[in-house]
Each structure stands twice: as C-alpha cells, then as structure tokens.
C-alpha cells in the first residue's frame, strides 16, 4: 500500500495553476486510473508513463493504481504532467523516497523510451510554481534556460526519467546520449515549436533570422511625414494608420517600426516570453525575448485568431503575440468587421478576456497597432492621372469598413504618397538610420517617463484627457489652432485630447519642456492628415 | 446649349444685380403681409403645378415653354382632356403625349400637397411671394415649383446664399475645407447651399450647422425622402434648423440624371458656387459650369497638385474660376460692396523698410566678425563716405554695432525671424 505525491502545473491561458499529482497503490487487479478532468492527451499519459517507467529500468507496480490530479475542478491538458505522474507512481511503489518528490514541481513529457521531451509554456508554469512558493523545479533539459529566467527557483534540467530517478535516489547519474546525433534532425524540438501556431505572425522576425538582414529606416526614400509619424508612434505609443496607394511603402515603413522601439524591460521580456512559450513559437536557443515582437496577421484572419480562441481553453491570438510589440494589420479594410471590432477591447484595456467552454482566460494584449489601408478597392483613388474607376459609393464603403470607434483610438493618421523618382534615385533621399531615430525615441521615452514618474502611466498615449487639461498643460496660446478646429466641429473633445497627447510626444522628441504652437500644429497634422505646413523634418526644433 | 447659355449669362448677370436691393426691401416688407394676399398663386394654379411636377421631369424645357405660354391649369387640362388641344402645342408628338398621359393618370396633387404639409412643408410656385425669382434665370428649364421643408423664408435665404459643392468620395482635406468654409460662411451671415450628399456636401452642411448658421439642402428626390440614407439625421436637422428643398414630388427617388439636373437649381439659386474637391469628371463641375453660364461666380478651393481629386478644381481655376481659400474670400467675391476679406501678407520686417543703399551696405557686412568702413564700401559698391553715413544710420536703427574702426552686425536673440535672415 503506497501513496506519494508530486507537483506539476496546468496552464490556463498564460497563467499557471500548480496541480498536485497523487498516486495511490492498493491491492487488487492491476489497473491504472487517471482522474481530475484530464483531456485526451493527458489520458494517454497512462500508456506513455507505463512504457517509460519500464524502459527506465524501474519496475511497474502490478497493483490497482489510481492517479488523481487536484484541484480536480481545473481542466488539465497536454503532456507536461508525464514526469510528475511517473515520479508519483514510483514514489508510491517506493522505488524513490516519497518525501523527496513532495515539494518538487515537475514538468515534461515522457517518450516511451524514458526520454524527457520539452513542452510548451515552461516559463509561465515555472513562474506560477515560484509564486505558489515552490523552490525546486524539474524541467526538460531543452527548456532549462527558459525556466532559469525565473528568480528564486532552482532548476534541474533532465534528459531522461532514468536520470531523474538517479538524482532523486542519490545514485550516480547515468550519462544519457546527446539528444541528437550530428546531422540528424532534432526530434526533441518537435514539441517545442508548434507548426502553424505562429504562421502569419512573423514573430520577432529579426531575432529568429539572426543578424542577417535587418530592415533599416535609411532604406526608406523621402516620406518625411510618415517617417515622423513612425517616430512619434514609437516614442509615445500612439496607434498609427497609414493610408496610401499600393507600392507607396506602407508595409516597408511598418516593418521598420519594431527596431526603433526601445528594447523590452526585464518584466516586459518575461511577459512576452511567457505568451510566446504558451503559443509554442519561442525559438529554441533563445529563452528570453528581449526585443519588441512584430505580428502581422493576414487579412483573412478570423476573430478567434486575432484575439485568441480554440477548443476547450483559449490559446493566445495575434493581439497577445504582439504584446509589448507591434500588431500590423496590412490591408486593414479587408479584415472582417467582426475581427476589427474585436480589437477595441484590448486596445482600451491592454488585455483580452476570452471565454470558452473550459473556462475564461485573460491574456495580455498591450500592443501598438499599425493599420495600413488603400484609399479605395483599386488603390488609385486621389492619385492624379491614375484613373481610379471606383464609384464614390464604393470608395466610401471601403473607407467605412474601418469603424469609427476603432479609428477613434488611432492617434496618428498619415497619408503615404507614392515615392517620387527624385527621392528614389537621388542620393540626398537617403534618410536617417534606424539607430539615430531609435536613440531619439529612447530619449523621448525617458523624458516622458520622468514626467510621469509618480503616475500609473509610462507613455503619453496612456495619459487620460483630464490630466492633460489640468496638470500637464501646453504652453499658453499654443492651442489656438486646435480650439478653432473644435469650434468649427472639425475636432471632437476626445480628438482634442488625442492631439494633446501627440503634441506632448512631439515636444518630447524635440527635447522641449512642454508643447508649443508648432508641436500642436504637427500633432494636428498627424492626427487629421491635413497639411498645415508644420515642419516635419527630423530636426523640427 | 452653349450659344443660348451665353445669351442667358449676360442677361442674367444684369438682372441679378438690378434685383437684389429692390427685392431685399420688398422681401422684408412682405413678411408682415398676411398669407394669401397679393403675390400668392391661386389654389387652382398651385394644384395644377403640383400635378405637373409629377408629369414633367426636372429640366424639361419644352414643358417649361408650354407652362409659360398657357399656364399650369390650362396645360394640365390640355394633357388630360382628349379634345385634341394638346396636339396643338408646338413640339408635342403623339409619343410624348402618351408619355405625359401615362404619368398624369397617377398624379394626385392633392395627396402630394397633403403629404408635404404633413411633413411640415409647402409647395412654392413661380409667382408666389416666397418664390426665389433668380431661378427664372434658368428660362424654360426653371422648376415647375419647389417643395420646401423648414420654417425660414426661401426667397430671403436664397438672396444671400453660396453653394459649396464637391466630391462624394472626398479626402480628409476636402472634408476639412468644406467644413471650414461652411462654418466660416455661416458666421459671416451667408446661407450655405449644397446637395446633402456624402463627402463635401455633407461636410459643408455640418460646418454651417456647427457654427449655428443657416444652411439649405437641394435634394434630387422628394423632400420627404432622406437620400442618402446615411444622411437622414443630417437632413432631419436641416429641416429643423434650415431648409430642405427639391423640385421632385414627395416620394420620388433620385436617378443619375436627376442629380445632374438638380445641380442647375443649386447654381441658379445661389450667388456663387464654390467647388471644394472634384475630379475631371464630376457632377460638381456641372454645377460650376451651370453657375458660370448663369453669370454667377464660380470659385474653387485648390488642393495638392498631385491629387486627382483636385484636378477638376484646378482645371476650373485655370478657366473662369476664382481661387478662394476661406470664407472671407468667398464673401468678398459674392458679397456686397465693401464686404472685403482682410488684407493678407507676410509680416513686414524692419529691414524691408530700409532704402536701397542701406540694404546694400547691410548685406555687405560679414555674417560674423567685423569689417572696416572701406571694406564695407567696396563690397557694397558705394563710396566710403556714403557707406560710413549709412553705417551710422544703421547703427542708430540698431542693425549694426561699432567696435573701434570695425563694424559688426548686431547679435539678436535667435527667435527673431529678422535675425535669422541677417545672420546667415
């Protein structure tokens, strides 16, 4: 008669819940029952564990065996419980000392041969374990780096069950063969990267492709105003809409935005890594995502793929994969209206709450949204001599696909004109490099952070309107142009707040203490898209 | 059409100016006059014209001629009665007559009048006190009558009105300019007339309403029909705060040609037409050309030269159109004598006021460092004495400083525009 328990972690969204795995042996006909809301892949754990234990040189107890996962009400899934189940069974069979495994969190899938295979979501799982007070975790060796990011936890990376048993029994640890031979594909990584999960998301493209080609702002010819908008968006965290004919360079501009964003802080990195780990798109060998992610879903994306969804428990969607980074929606009017309008909640609150049959999940989704749109279905509307034949009603319909409430959250609306030959061919057209702009953005962010130090906000885009009108006021008389627009009904009260927010960012970029009339003019121009002769050059001072 | 148009143009322009002041006076006096007094069309004629509004398409010049020749009651009788009198109208063919008769069968003028009256409207005919007689400039294509919703007096409002028209699929710039113009004109006491369409039209109406001013929509459908549907609320507001008029009987729906024909009413009703954004092929340019033929002012708001949506406006501006950038400039053109836009020019800088030699001497001074009088004279191309005299003059004006024998430009704070010019 034996009883033992070990611990593992169930993932609910990107948050972990520590699960106790209890194994109980009783006399009776040999059987193996698994209880506690396991899903299909977890039920199969029985067979995997039995084979792995047998192949690791341990004896499988020929008794009535019950394994319970508690809390029983939390739905559990995936193969990450294998290691904990195996150890609990061996503890109950007294192959290993039950006391040695009681407070150890074990995460990992077992192969039939007893090898430990990596699973997704190790970082959030270990974070949850650490929060719950556990100090020792055992994870597959490949994900030990990811687990080690969590402070205050001692991590043991194992290659096989045999190794783990040896460690727990203080026996000499057998040296397992290297996980993969030279030249053969690494089968172990199959569990880590989920094929298809990151499709169309282009996660952290720069980082996965190493230091090869990195898009630089200097490649963009001309386009003074969109460049300025990009810089303001990065410095203040303002959402951005780029409108222009095909081939004007909207995508090119958007792709260069992540590089001018400041690098992620430690806390942000952990958040981003956790989401990516759960989604199964964390590149192997790079346990910590340190740069702003870039996610560009195709316009056929469904609402579920954008905000998160799936059977049973929801999985992170594009908005969460773009957490602390860029969500670029190219051809935005082509997205389904449902999908676009579903973005409103995360835009407002910085997270999404998705409900599915198995539970409600809150996923982080604080991203910088960049929309790109053609002016009409054929894309040539407003171009001189291009012959757009779209009837006015269809142009209107096309533009109306981006709903008012969504556009209302977009601080910067910029027309991207087709690039001129003189800019493209001329040597003088070469603009500032990413490094120069990124440095300015960092300074502006620092300036804003310093000003907002004793407030809950960090970037200008988050500051609420009443704050802008009472505590952080612009230079006297600077608002004349904006107020005149408001009188005429061209600018709503909310629009004025947006203009003020952008103006603060423009002033920060300029190194000024507070926005003056020229900053407001730039902000008005960037917000409304109507030229006002405001200086758009990099040195707007 | 063109030949006739030229004729109309000259006559109309003269008629317009001759009439304005006199009518304004009369209009003001008319207000106190009780309804139904002299200056009102009798009920039979009104009923007949209401019926004819269903029979004659807008802009039917032949029908307009018959109407002028024999009056509404008689024309309706001839079309209805099968006594052969209709065939005697010049230009009437059996086919046409059959068409008119098909329509007259369904005409129920009494019901139409009641429908519009129920919607708070009225039917204004030529000869009525409220009839805007500038529409007579359209000749035989003038409307049979106008269905009007809204409280204000159509005639009084039309006297001081400007049309603001443009593309339906306008750019943000177009919408911005239309709103600004609408609001600006309303603030100057002008009535903003447009077609209630999406884009520029709607923006102009909204601008005027936002400024608490007067605005009038000329619809290409029945006045009880809200077209476009998306502007139902805007049209509703104009019924409350302004005027909504149309020449089509209640319940009628717009067609392509009716939009074009509606434009002639907008052009004729107003003193001038401002086109905000228009492509080469645009209904707004029809309005502008019509206004031009009628001797009204045509104006255009320029846009970027790269924008296809402003190409039509620019073509207009290269011809008869006048470039305007804001409401004051529009008012200056269409308004009464003395209604001038404020003069605009760049700031006058102190150095602009210097005489020629002084300017040369000032230019001769080096950007930084000092120069002595002879050097200055040499580079200014003048005699040493004159240069010295001018340098003292400049010194007293504060442009230069003297250091021993050397002369130097005065350093100014960099925020001064003048200093930047002088310093570089």
Write the layout of secondary structure elements.
The complex is a heterodimer of chains A (541) and B (424).
Chain A (H helix, E strand, L loop, with lengths): L1 E11 L2 E12 L4 E5 L4 H4 L1 H11 L8 E7 L11 H11 L5 H4 L2 E3 L2 E2 L5 E2 L4 H10 L4 E5 L3 H4 L6 E5 L2 H8 L36 H4 L15 H13 L3 E4 L6 H6 L1 H4 L5 H14 L14 E2 L7 H5 L10 H4 L4 E4 L7 H5 L2 H6 L1 E6 L2 E6 L3 E6 L18 H9 L3 H5 L3 E4 L5 H5 L8 H18 L13 H6 L9 H8 L5 H18 L6 H12 L13
Helix pairs in contact in A: 2-3, 9-20, 20-23, 23-24
Chain B lengths: L1 H29 L12 H13 L5 H20 L13 H13 L2 H10 L2 E4 L21 E4 L4 H6 L1 E5 L6 H16 L3 E4 L5 H11 L4 E5 L12 H10 L1 E4 L9 H14 L2 E4 L7 H11 L3 E4 L10 H8 L3 E2 L3 H8 L21 H9 L6 E2 H8 L3 H14 L2 E4 L2 E4 L7 H7 L1
Parallel strand pairs in B: 3-4, 3-7, 4-5, 5-6, 7-8, 8-9
Antiparallel strand pairs in B: 1-2, 2-6, 10-12, 11-12
Helix pairs in contact in B: 2-3, 2-4, 2-5, 7-8, 7-13, 8-9, 10-11, 14-15, 14-16, 15-16
Structural summary, described in words:
The complex is a heterodimer of chains A (541) and B (424). Chain A is an alpha/beta fold and 541 residues long. Chain A is built from 24 helices and 16 strands. In chain A, strands 11-12-15-10-16 form a five-stranded parallel beta sheet. The longest helix of chain A has 18 residues, at 434-451. Chain A starts with a strand and ends in a 13-residue tail after the last helix. Chain B is built from 17 helices and twelve strands. Residues 1-38 and 413-424 of chain B have low confidence and may be disordered. Chain B is of the alpha/beta class. Chain B starts with a helix and ends with a helix. Helix content of chain B is 49%, strand content 11%. The A-B interface holds A 375-376, 380-386, 388, 390, 392-393, 395-396, 399, 413, 417, 487-490, 528-531 and B 167-169, 171-173, 176, 179-180, 183-184, 198-199, 206-207, 209-211, 304-309, 311.
């Amino acid at each position: 008669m034996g009883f033992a328990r070990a611990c593992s972690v169930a993932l609910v969204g990107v948050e972990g819940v520590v699960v106790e795995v209890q194994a109980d042996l009783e006399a009776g006909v040999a059987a193996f029952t698994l209880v506690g809301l396991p899903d299909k892949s977890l039920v199969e754990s029985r067979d995997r564990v039995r084979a792995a234990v047998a192949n690791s040189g341990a004896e499988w107890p020929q008794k009535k065996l019950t394994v319970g996962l508690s809390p029983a009400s939390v739905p559990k899934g995936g193969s990450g419980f294998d290691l904990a189940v195996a150890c609990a069974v061996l503890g109950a069979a007294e192959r290993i000392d039950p006391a040695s495994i009681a407070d150890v969190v074990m995460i990992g899938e077992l192969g039939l041969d007893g090898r430990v295979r990596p699973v997704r979501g190790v970082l959030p799982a270990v974070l949850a374990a650490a929060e719950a007070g556990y100090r020792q975790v055992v994870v597959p060796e490949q994900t030990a780096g990811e687990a080690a990011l969590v402070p205050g936890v001692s991590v043991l990376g194992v290659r096989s069950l045999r190794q783990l048993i040896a460690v727990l029994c203080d026996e000499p640890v057998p040296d397992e063969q290297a996980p993969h031979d030279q030249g053969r594909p690494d089968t172990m990584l199959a569990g880590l990267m989920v094929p298809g999960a990151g499709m169309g998301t282009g996660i952290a493209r720069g980082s996965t492709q190493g230091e090869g080609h990195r898009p630089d702002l200097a490649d963009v010819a001309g386009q003074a105003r969109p460049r300025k908008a990009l810089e303001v968006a990065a410095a203040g965290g303002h959402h951005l809409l780029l409108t222009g004919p095909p081939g004007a360079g909207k995508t090119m501009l958007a792709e260069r935005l992540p590089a001018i964003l400041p690098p992620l802080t430690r806390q942000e990195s952990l958040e981003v890594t956790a989401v990516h780990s759960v989604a199964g798109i964390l590149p192997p060998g790079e346990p910590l995502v340190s740069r702003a992610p870039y996610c560009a879903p195709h316009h056929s994306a469904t609402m579920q793929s954008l905000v998160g969804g799936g059977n049973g428990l929801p999985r992170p969607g594009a908005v969460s994969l773009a957490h602390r980074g860029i969500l670029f929606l190219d051809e935005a009017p082509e997205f389904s209206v449902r999908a676009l309008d579903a973005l409103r909640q995360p835009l407002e609150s910085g997270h999404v709450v998705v409900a599915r049959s198995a539970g409600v999940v809150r996923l982080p989704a604080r991203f910088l949204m960049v929309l790109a749109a053609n002016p009409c279905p054929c894309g040539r509307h407003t171009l001189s001599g291009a012959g757009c034949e779209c009837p006015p009603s269809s142009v209107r319909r096309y533009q109306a696909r981006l709903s008012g409430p969504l556009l209302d959250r977009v601080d910067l609306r910029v027309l991207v004109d087709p690039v001129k030959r003189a800019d493209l061919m001329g040597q003088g057209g070469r603009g500032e490099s990413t490094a120069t702009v990124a440095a300015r953005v960092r300074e502006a962010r620092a300036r804003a952070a310093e000003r907002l130090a004793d407030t809950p906000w960090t970037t200008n885009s988050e500051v609420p309107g009443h704050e802008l009108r009472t505590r952080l006021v612009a230079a006297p008389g600077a608002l004349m142009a904006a107020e005149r627009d408001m009188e005429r009904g061209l600018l709503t009260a909310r629009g004025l707040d947006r203009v003020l927010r952008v103006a603060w960012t423009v002033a920060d970029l300029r190194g000024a203490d507070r926005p003056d009339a020229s900053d407001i003019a730039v902000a008005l121009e960037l917000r409304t898209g109507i030229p006002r002769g405001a200086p758009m050059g990099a040195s707007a001072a | 059409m063109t030949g006739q148009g030229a004729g109309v143009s000259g006559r109309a322009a003269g008629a317009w100016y001759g009439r304005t002041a006199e009518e304004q006076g009369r209009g003001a006096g008319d207000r106190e006059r009780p309804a139904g007094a002299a200056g009102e069309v009798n009920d039979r004629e009104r009923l007949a014209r209401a019926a004819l509004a269903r029979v004659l398409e807008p802009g039917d010049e032949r029908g307009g001629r018959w109407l002028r020749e024999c009056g509404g009651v008689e024309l309706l009788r001839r079309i209805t009665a099968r006594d052969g009198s209709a065939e005697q109208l010049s230009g009437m063919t059996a086919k046409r007559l059959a068409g008119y008769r098909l329509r007259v069968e369904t005409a129920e003028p009494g019901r139409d009048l009641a429908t519009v009256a129920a919607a708070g409207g009225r039917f204004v005919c030529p000869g009525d006190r409220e009839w805007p007689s500038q529409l007579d400039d359209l000749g035989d294509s003038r409307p049979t009558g106008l269905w009007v919703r809204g409280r204000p007096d159509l005639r009084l409002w039309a006297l001081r009105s400007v049309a603001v028209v443009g593309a339906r699929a306008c750019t943000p710039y177009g919408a911005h300019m239309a709103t600004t113009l609408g609001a600006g004109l309303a603030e100057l006491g002008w009535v903003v007339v447009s077609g209630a369409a999406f884009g520029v039209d709607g923006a102009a109406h909204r601008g005027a309403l936002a400024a608490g001013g007067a605005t009038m929509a000329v619809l290409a459908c029945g006045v009880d029909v809200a077209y476009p549907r998306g502007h139902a609320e805007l049209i509703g507001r104009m019924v409350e705060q302004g005027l909504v008029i149309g020449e089509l009987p209640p319940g009628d729906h717009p067609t392509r040609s009716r939009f074009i024909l509606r434009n002639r009413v907008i052009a004729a009703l107003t003193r001038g037409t401002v086109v905000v954004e228009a492509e080469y092929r645009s209904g707004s340019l029809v309005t502008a050309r019509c206004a031009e033929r009628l001797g009204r002012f045509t104006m255009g708001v320029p846009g970027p030269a790269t924008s296809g949506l402003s190409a039509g406006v620019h073509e207009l501006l290269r011809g008869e159109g006048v470039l305007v950038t804001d409401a004051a400039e529009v008012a200056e053109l269409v308004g009464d004598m003395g209604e001038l836009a404020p003069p605009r020019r760049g700031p006058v800088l102190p150095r602009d006021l210097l005489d020629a030699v002084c300017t040369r001497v000032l230019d001769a001074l080096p950007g930084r460092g000092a120069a002595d009088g002879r050097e200055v004279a040499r580079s200014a191309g003048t005699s040493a004495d004159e240069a010295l005299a001018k340098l003292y003059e400049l010194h007293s004006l504060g442009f230069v400083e003297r250091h021993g024998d050397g002369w130097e430009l005065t350093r100014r704070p960099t925020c001064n525009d003048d200093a930047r010019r002088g310093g570089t």
